[in-house]
Design goal:
Elements lengths: L7 E3 L9 E4 H5 L3 H4 L3 E4 L18 H13 L3 E4 L6 H12 L3 E5 L6 H5 E8 L2 E8 L1 H7 L3 E5 L6 H10 L6 E3 L4 E3 L6 E6 L19 H4 L4 E4 L5 H11 L6 H22 L9 H14 L2 H8 L9 H12 L6
Length: about 325
């Protein structure tokens, strides 16, 4: 009787380990009372796929410590929060300061199991067409000690989610049925995810395509952290850093009113008064469009108001009047 061949268990490639020890409070600008004189491991040099540092980035203390736990102790970390709150960039900016290679995969409806795992492809060798297995992003990241971020995790297809579920176990290995082999993850491989919901579906109607996540899978995430929008002064300082044309006092005051407007939309959304809110990304677009068109009200309409439900524009006009003493409906 013939027995199936034993799968080939592929061992991790030898890659450098994080050999530097850096101060958490100093590196990420955290209060020493929060960081508690903590230190973390980092690589001494930048390699391919290490994200570019954003010198103006402001780190949320709890989110930063959670992500560092993911890198240092191989914990599976999922960051949940509203759109534009900086979930993915937060993970990337931590990785950038650790010199840790990191790639993002957006789990949109077109990403399939084969995209993650790999597929057979026709290649030309010595003038002859042959079929060869092309590895997907997941086996590549596992073997190359790279952190992977699954963006829009709550929008992933079921076949994709079950591929990920095996990875969420401690030292989770990946079985490639197509090649009859098992990949053992490199010790530097890390798994992160971002989502707009906490896996229970979207009751607000704001995030179309979000779905409930198998709770057995959610249970495999070691750390779930919520990332909210920044405080007023922190958001204002980020905008001033990114928009040097607003550094003078009149424009700084104007930018402060724009941040106040954004905060009103977030409060209105929280209380169910409006269905659209302004993110930091929207604020930057508004300020940049103002510099282009030279009219604050027009820039606001182009950047945000035209995206909103017409029935809610009266409420948004009230917010605008509070911040700028201008009636948009005149």
């Amino acid at each position: 009787m013939n027995h199936p061949a034993e799968p080939d268990i592929e061992q991790s490639k030898p890659l450098p380990r994080p050999e530097l020890t850096i101060d958490v409070a100093e590196t990420f600008g955290l209060d020493r009372d929060i960081a508690r004189n903590m230190h973390t491991k980092a690589f001494s040099s930048r390699v391919e796929h290490v994200p570019v540092q954003d010198a103006s980035y402001v780190f949320d203390p709890v989110t930063t410590l959670s992500i560092l736990a993911g890198f240092n102790h191989n914990r599976r970390v999922i960051v949940q929060g509203m759109h534009g709150s900086g979930k993915s960039s937060h993970i990337e900016q931590v990785a950038a300061r650790l010199n840790w290679p990191c790639v993002r995969v957006n789990l949109d409806s077109h990403i399939s199991r084969l995209d993650l795992i790999g597929r057979d492809a026709i290649v030309l060798k010595n003038g002859v067409q042959t079929t060869e297995f092309q590895e997907g992003i997941l086996p590549w990241a596992m073997q190359n000690g790279t952190a992977i971020i699954f963006d829009e995790y709550d929008a992933g297809r079921p076949d994709v989610m079950f591929v990920i579920q095996r990875l969420l176990e401690d030292n989770g290995k990946l079985t490639l049925l197509e090649q009859n082999r098992v990949i053992t993850p490199h010790e530097n491989f890390r798994v992160f995810a971002t989502s707009n919901t906490v896996g229970l579906g979207d009751a607000t109607g704001l995030y179309h395509g979000s779905q409930q996540i198998n709770q057995a899978q959610m249970d495999r995430w070691h750390i779930t952290v919520n990332l909210n929008y920044l405080a007023f002064e922190e958001e204002l300082n980020i905008l001033l850093t990114k928009l040097p044309d607003f550094q003078n006092e009149p424009n700084r005051a104007l930018l402060g009113s724009m941040v106040a407007m954004a905060e009103l939309t977030r409060e209105g959304f929280k209380h169910g008064d409006i269905s659209t809110l302004m993110s930091l990304r929207t604020l930057i677009s508004w300020a940049e469009n103002y510099l282009i068109v030279g009219d604050l009200e027009m820039a606001f309409r182009l950047s945000f108001l035209n995206k909103c439900d017409e029935q809610e524009r009266f409420i948004l006009s009230e917010y605008y009047q509070r911040c700028f003493d201008i009636d948009l409906l005149d």
